[in-house]
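# nightly structure sweep
# worker-07 picked up a monomer target from the shared queue
# config: single-sequence mode, recycle default, output format = structure tokens
# input follows
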Amino acid sequence: IVNALAKHNNLRKLSLSFDNDGGEWCNELAQLLQNPNSNLEELDLTNNRFDNNGATALGNAFAKNNTLKKFSLVGDRSNTTITSTGWVAFSRCLANPNSS
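# output follows
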């Protein structure tokens, strides 16, 4: 799905609110977020599950993205496999003044 979305430069809002396991989809989404032609401004990942690798991939992508203005990650934390290592990697984007 993410590969198909990368072809739509006019995509501004994306909701992937579903119960998706693992982190492979995070790597694909990270590629979309790092695409220089992406104009994505809002991303909703409510109720998704991902691991440290997924958190790292998304955090790195957010740090390089300069169009995203709104991000939602709401859900039951008991379903996540992210440890403090993953959250530290994910939060690096917050310290980057170039990320939106």
